[in-house]
Each structure stands twice: as structure tokens, then as C-alpha cells.
Amino acid sequence: MRTKIDTHAAAALAGHDGFALISNQKLVQLYTSMVQCRLLSERAGLSEVAGQEAAIVGVSVDLKAKDTIADSPRGLLAGFVRGSALKSVFTAKMAREAQPESALGAALLGKFRQNGSVVVVFGEPVASGWHEALRVAGAHQLPIVFVSWSGDLRERTRGKGPAAKAEQTEQADFGEVPIIPVDGSDVVAVYRVATESIAHARKGNGPTLIDCVAYRLEGQRRAKREDPLGKMETYLAGKGLFDCNLKSKISIEFRPSEC
Fold first, then answer.
1. Domain count of the fold of the chain
2. β-pairing verdict for 208-213 and 179-183
3. First and final C-alpha spacing in the chain
């Protein structure tokens, strides 16, 4: 059965009366964690996650110790944001992309124990095992939040021919899991959707796939326009929470080193 993609799903999860106010302290925490993730990814040689800090931080910043994050380079950075030791991040270069079916066991156990825990899986929806894991998670209403990167949707929708059509059909076949698209370079938007999706799972209402429209930081114009750090700096400045010394202070105080 094809996924039911509800264009109002994000509003339904977040509430039609608007989003809860995010405190200034939380906004600065989101930005600080993104800067730290950028520094860590550069130090650990994880160039493939550059530009994805907003999605990683927005999803993981409020996760609890009892929650499970599937192993992957992005997952290890998410684990750091959640509170894992710095040392674990430097194993990210050897970490494989998450195999979502391996997270089903943890989700089944969490559902059985009814302890309100959730499982978070970062990865690509075209990767092996995603379709089956999504169908199983939806069929059994498992407490899983899947986080995928769709790439530039404007470019993907230009694709023509059998290969492009097959990919679009395959990516749409995700069972009964709601798909919530969000700007993957906007940490505030990701945080809002992730907060509601995680709460949705904790209450036993089943999984969600957060589809982050993300951009590779290639080319000076695109890098500047789509860099999540730059976007958040502009947002914070509009609230009087950012000055040119904040990023430097975070960088100086945070000195990641291989342990």
C-alpha cells in the first residue's frame, strides 16, 4: 500500500492553533549544538554531513537517555548532541549507514515495556531495508522517528525517464507512515516537527518519517544561502540573540579532540 502523504500532517501534529513558543535559551542551545556538530564533523572527517547540522540537532537535542539512536555517522553526532561522550563521535568514520530494520527490535521492546522510549533512525529512504522497516513500523505502530534527506526537491522533480520514475514510485511506497517534509537547513522548523513527531511516538501513536529537504554545501552562493548556521545566525540576530562574538566564543570554548 502506498504511503498516505498528508499535506496537513505537520499542522496536525503541531496543532492547528500554532506552535508553542521556543525559549531564547533553547534557540541559543540549538545554534550552539550546530556549531559544535560542524566542528566535530570537520575534525572527524565527516564531510558528507556538512550542511545537515540543523536536521541532526533539531531532532536529537531533546532526546532522553532511554531513547535509542541507530548507529550511523549522523546518528553518532546526534548521540553527542543528546549527551554521549565525545570519543564516540570519532568512530563515526567507521560507522555504517543505519540499517533501519535493526532498529525495529528496540522499538518493539520499547512498545512492549510501555516506557515511552523512542527510536530515531537517520538515513536515506532509498537505502536497503528502509521500505520494509517503514511498512513494519507502520503496521505495528512502533515508536520510531525516521529522518531522511531527500536532496533538492526542485532538482529531483526535474528527473525524467524510467529510472527517475522508478525512484519516485519506490520512495512513495512507505506503507502507512506519515511523511512530514521540512526545510532541512532550518533548525527551528526541524525542531518543531521533531518535537511533535517524537511526542506522537511516545504516546503510542506510531512512527513518522521526517523528510528533510537538504542541500549539499557546494558552490559559494548556495553554501551561503542554504548553510543552516548562517540561517540560524540571521534568525537569532532578528531576536537580538546573536552578535559576531557568539560563534567565536563557542568555537574557542569547544575544543574537540580525539580521546
1. 1
2. parallel
3. 48
The alpha carbons of the chain give a radius of gyration, in whole angstroms, of 18
Give me the pLDDT at residue 5, please.
40
pTM more than 0.85: no
Q: Go through 163-172 and write b for each residue having 16 or more CB atoms within 10 A of its CB, e for each that does not.
A: eeeeeeeebe
Q: Range with the lowest mean pLDDT among 86-100, 141-155, 174-188?
A: 86-100
Phi, psi of 176 (to 5 degrees): -105, 20
Residue 258 within a domain: no
Query: Whole-angstrom Cα distance, residue 39 to residue 91?
Result: 15
- Residues in Cβ contact with 12 at an 8 Å cutoff, skipping those fewer than 6 apart: 6
CATH number at residue 188: 3.40.50.970
Instruction: Tell me whether residue 247 is exposed, middle or buried, using C-beta atoms within 10 angstroms of its C-beta: 0 to 12, 13 to 18, 19 or more.
Output: middle
User: Residue 33 burial by CB count (10 A; 0-12/13-18/19+): exposed, middle or buried?
Assistant: buried
